[in-house]
Design a protein that fits this description.
The structure holds two protein chains of two kinds.
Chain A: E1 2-11, E2 14-24, E3 28-33, H1 40-48, E4 52-60, E5 63-64, H2 70-73, E6 78-81, H3 93-100, H4 109-119, H5 121-125, H6 136-148, E7 154-158, H7 166-181, E8 185-189, H8 193-199, E9 202-207, E10 210-216, H9 217-221, H10 224-231
Parallel strand pairs in A: 3-8, 3-9, 6-7, 7-8
Antiparallel strand pairs in A: 1-2, 1-4, 4-5, 9-10
Helix pairs in contact in A: 3-6, 4-6
Chain B: H1 2-31, H2 38-56, H3 59-82, H4 90-112, E1 127-130, E2 133-136, H5 137-159, H6 161-171, H7 173-178, H8 183-209, H9 218-231, H10 236-256, H11 263-277
Antiparallel strand pairs in B: 1-2
The chains are: A alpha/beta, B mainly alpha.
C-alpha cells in the first residue's frame, strides 16, 4: 500500500527524517513509534504533502506521490488525522464533515456522513455544534470522521490517544478496531505503548529520523529489550 | 421622522462601506494582507461605469463591464503583485499595495484627466418623498443591490459546499488542501468576488454623486481599513455590522457633532472608542 524509499524530509534547514525505508502492506494497522523528535509526525506529514521532501520517494499503491501537491493526495486514497486534530473550529460538526468530503461528488456526502455518525453516534447529537466547542474526545472522533469522509484506502492517524480521558481513548480505539475489520490500511503514530501493542499488526521504531527496528507486534511483545529500550510502558497522560 | 431619515441615509452610506470593505476582509482573511489597492478597484469600477455608459448609452452594459473587468483586475493583482511575495513579511505586501494604489490614482489622472467625469445623460436620481422620508432613487437602488449581493454572499458562505470550503481555507489552508480544496482557486475566487463588489460600490457612488475622479478611492481606502479593524479582522459578519453602524453613526454625527468634528473624524473617534472597549473589534477572535 505505502512504500517510502530512502525518504529524507524536514523543515527549513532542519532534517527530521533521514533516508527512511518503510513498507506498509495493505490492510491492518502499522504503528510508527519512538520518542519525541524521532520523526514520526514529519513522516506522516511528508506523506500527506505538508513537509518538504528532500530526497527519496513516496509511493501509494505504486503511484508516485513524491512531487504531487497535498490537494492531489486525497485522490490517491490518502487521508490524515493530524496531531492536535486541526479541525476547523468555527465550522460545525456537519460542516467539518462536508469539508472532509469535498474532493468527492456532493451526492456522496450524505451516505458517508451517516456512516461517520453510525461510527460515532455522539457526533450526530452534536451535528450543529461548533467543532471548537467539542470536548477533546469528541474532537478526535470528528477528526477521524472527517478523514473517513474522503473514502480513504490509507488512513494516517497521529497520536490517537494524546490528551484524552481513558473512556474516550477506549471509544477511539474501538472505532479503530472496527475500521480495521473493513480492510482499511492504517498508519498509526502513538505514544501509548499498551494500546499500540494491542491494536497494531506491525511496528516500526524510529530514532532520530531513522528506522531502528521493524517487525510484527507479536515479535515486539516477545522482545523485552525492545520494549524497555524503545517502547517502554508509557500511557498517554489523560486530561481531566 | 428626522431620526428615521438619518438612519436610512446612514444605512445607504453604510451599504457603500460594506460593499467595499467585504472584499478587503475576504483578502485579509485568506492572505493576512491589508489590500489597500482595493480602493483603486472601487474607483476603476466607477470609471468603467461612466465611460461605458457615455460611449454606449447602456447603463446595464456598463455595470456588467465594470463588474467583470474589475473582478478580473482583482485576480490579476493577486497573481502579479501578491502571489510572488506571499512568503515575505506582511509589511512588504502592504507597501506594494499602497504603491499600486497610488499608481492607479495617477493612471486614472493620466487616462481621464484630473477633473473627473460625469454621466453625459445622468440616470434618473430624483429624490423620492414618502411619508416624510427623503431618499434618492440611487440610494434606494444602492440599498436593494447591497442587500441582495451581501445577502447572496452570506448564503454562499453559509449554505453551500463552496462557502464551507472557503471558510475552512481561511482557518487552516494546509488542512483544507488535505481534503482536496484548491486554495489557489479559492484565492482567485475571493479576489474576483471582492473586487466585483467594490466595482458595484463604485458604480453606485458614481450614480449618487454623478462624478468620478482620480482620488475618489482615498477616503474609502482608509475608512474600509478602519471598518475591517472595527469588525474584527477577517470577520465578514463583523465587517457588515461595522460598515452599517459606521454609516449610521456618521449620519447622526454630522448633524449633532458637525460643529466639533467632520464626518471622517467622527468615524475614527468611533473606531477608537470601540477599540478601547473591544481591542479585537466587534466580532474578532481573541
Amino acid at each position: 500500500m505505502l512504500r517510502l524509499e530512502n525518504l529524507t524530509c524536514g523543515y527549513g534547514q532542519m532534517r527530521a527524517v533521514h533516508g527512511l525505508d518503510l513498507e506498509v502492506p495493505a490492510g491492518g494497522v502499522t504503528a510508527l513509534v519512538g520518542a519525541n523528535g524521532a520523526g514520526k509526525t514529519s513522516t506522516i506529514m511528508a506523506v500527506a504533502g505538508h513537509v518538504a521532501i528532500r530526497s527519496g520517494r513516496v509511493l501509494v499503491d505504486g503511484q508516485d506521490l513524491t512531487r504531487r501537491p497535498a490537494t492531489a493526495r486525497v485522490g490517491a486514497g490518502v487521508a490524515i488525522v493530524p496531531e492536535g486534530r486541526r479541525l476547523f473550529p468555527d465550522l460545525t460538526v456537519e460542516e467539518n464533515l462536508i469539508v472532509g468530503g469535498y474532493a468527492l461528488p456532493a451526492a456522496r456526502t450524505p451516505p458517508n456522513r451517516e456512516r461517520a455518525f453510525a461510527l460515532f453516534p455522539r457526533l450526530a447529537e452534536r451535528r450543529r455544534q461548533r467543532a471548537g466547542s467539542l470536548s477533546g474526545g469528541e474532537q478526535q472522533m470528528l477528526a477521524i470522521g472527517r478523514a473517513l469522509m474522503t473514502e480513504p484506502r490509507f488512513l494516517m492517524i497521529d497520536e490517537l490517544s494524546l490528551g484524552l480521558m481513558p473512556k474516550m481513548v477506549d471509544l477511539c480505539y474501538e472505532a479503530l478496531a472496527s475500521l480495521k475489520t473493513t480492510g482499511l490500511t492504517v498508519l498509526l503514530v502513538e505514544q501509548n505503548t499498551a494500546r499500540v501493542l494491542a491494536v497494531a499488526d506491525r511496528i516500526c521504531v524510529l530514532e532520530s529520523g531513522r528506522a531502528v527496528w521493524r517487525g510484527t507486534a507479536a515479535e515486539a511483545r516477545a522482545d523485552p529489550r525492545l520494549i524497555e529500550s524503545y517502547l517502554g510502558e508509557r500511557e498517554a497522560p489523560a486530561l481531566p | 421622522m428626522l431620526y428615521l431619515n438619518l438612519f436610512l441615509q446612514g444605512l445607504a452610506q453604510g451599504s457603500i462601506y460594506a460593499l467595499i470593505a467585504v472584499g478587503l476582509t475576504l483578502v485579509y482573511g485568506l492572505l493576512r494582507i491589508l489590500h489597500v489597492a482595493h480602493a483603486g478597484l472601487f474607483a476603476l469600477g466607477a470609471y468603467i461605469s461612466v465611460t461605458v455608459t457615455n460611449a454606449t448609452g447602456s447603463f446595464p452594459l456598463a455595470v456588467l463591464a465594470a463588474v467583470a473587468i474589475t473582478g478580473l483586475a482583482g485576480m490579476a493583482i493577486y497573481r502579479l503583485l501578491y502571489e510572488p511575495i506571499l512568503d515575505r513579511p506582511p509589511f512588504v505586501a502592504l507597501i506594494a499595495s499602497i504603491g499600486l494604489f497610488i499608481a492607479m490614482e495617477e493612471a486614472f489622472r493620466l487616462a481621464f484627466g484630473p477633473y473627473g467625469l460625469s454621466y453625459a445623460v445622468p440616470p434618473n436620481m430624483e429624490t423620492i418623498t414618502f411619508g416624510g422620508l427623503f431618499l434618492s432613487r440611487a440610494q434606494i437602488l444602492l440599498m436593494v443591490v447591497a442587500a441582495l449581493l451581501l445577502g447572496g454572499l452570506g448564503l454562499l458562505t453559509e449554505r453551500t459546499r463552496t462557502g464551507v470550503a472557503w471558510r475552512a481555507t481561511v482557518t487552516d489552508p494546509p488542512m483544507a488542501q488535505s481534503f482536496g480544496i484548491d486554495i489557489v482557486r479559492v484565492r482567485y475566487l475571493s479576489f474576483f468576488i471582492g473586487s466585483a463588489l467594490a466595482a458595484v460600490a463604485g458604480v453606485m457612488i458614481s450614480l449618487i454623486n454623478n462624478l468620478v475622479e482620480p482620488t475618489m478611492g482615498s477616503v474609502p481606502s482608509y475608512k474600509a481599513l478602519a471598518i475591517i479593524v472595527l469588525g474584527g479582522l477577517g470577520s465578514v459578519k463583523g465587517t457588515l455590522v461595522a460598515a452599517l453602524a459606521l454609516g449610521v453613526i456618521e449620519a447622526f454625527g454630522t448633524i449633532y457633532l458637525g460643529n466639533l468634528l467632520d464626518r471622517d473624524a467622527i468615524a475614527f473617534a468611533f473606531l477608537i472608542l470601540v477599540l478601547m472597549l473591544r481591542p479585537h473589534g466587534l466580532f474578532g477572535a481573541r
